[in-house]
Amino acid sequence: MIYVALLYSIVLGGGKRVVMSELREMAEGLGYQNCWTLVSTGNLVFEADESPIGDIESRLETAFKQRFGKHVDILVRSGPDWLKLSASNPFPGREGSEIGVRVMREPLAESVIGLLEKHRTDEKIAIINGDLWVDFGGQASETRLLSALTTKKLGIGTMRNANTVIRLAEMIS
Q1: Is residue 139 domain-shared with residue 100, that is, in the same domain?
Q2: Residue 43 has pLDDT above 90, yes or no
Q3: Which end of the chain is more exposed for a tag (fewer CB within 10 A), N or C?
Q4: Are residues 126 and 71 in the same domain?
Q5: Same domain, yes or no, for 98 and 74?
Q6: Structural domain tally of the chain?
C-alpha cells in the first residue's frame, strides 16, 4: 500500500532543519520501501504493508523523536485517501499557492466554520471530508486567518498548498 506522510514541521530549533534524505533513511529504517520526498518541507511517500493509519503515525513520530531529538506531529493518509483529498478541492479553477488545505488527524466538524468567521476577511473556507480548505485569495502569509489555524484551536493538522497536494497525488498515481 502507498502512504503519504506530512510532517507538521521540519524545524528542529537552533536553525537546524530535517534533511529530506535523512527523513527517507528514517522511514527505510522502519522497513518502509520506495521512500520519496517532495520538496524540503516534510512530505514523504512510501510503500508499506497495510496497517492502521494511527499505528503508522505513531511509528513515524517515535522514530522521528529518536532520530532527531524532537517530537513532531506526523499525519498519514493512504494513497487512495490522498487521491480523494486531492480531487476534493472545493474551489473550482483555483489552484496553486493561494489555495491551502489543513490536513487533519481528526476530522473537523462543520461548526468550525463559524469559529473561523471572525478571523476571515476575503478568504473562502470549506470543510471537505473533515479537512479545512482555504482560498486565501492572495498571499497566504498576509491573512489574519492563519492565527486561527493552530493545533491548539483546531487539533492536530498541517497545511499544504494545492501545488503540493497535486504533486503528491501525481507521485502516487
Answers
A1: yes
A2: yes
A3: C
A4: no
A5: no
A6: 2
Query: Mean per-residue pLDDT for 150-162?
Result: 93
- Residue 15 CA to residue 2 CA, distance in Å, equals 32
What is the distance of C-alpha 165 from the center of its chain? 9
Q: What is the mean pLDDT of the chain?
A: 92
DSSP H helical ranges for the chain: 20-29, 53-68, 79-86, 112-116, 151-154, 162-172
**How far apart (Å, rounded) are the C-alpha atoms in residues 28 and 21?**
10
3-state secondary structure of 132: strand
What cell numbers appear for 50 in the block? Answer: 497495510
Grid coordinates of 63:
522514530
Q: Are residues 115 and 157 in the same domain?
A: yes
Structural domain boundaries, residue 98: 82-172
Same-domain status, 22 and 94? no
Interatomic CA distance for residues 109 and 171, integer angstroms: 30
Distance in angstroms (rounded) separating the CA atoms of residues 58 and 118? 34
Residue 73: HSE in the Cβ half-sphere, 13 Å Cα cutoff? 14
More confident site: 118 or 139: 118
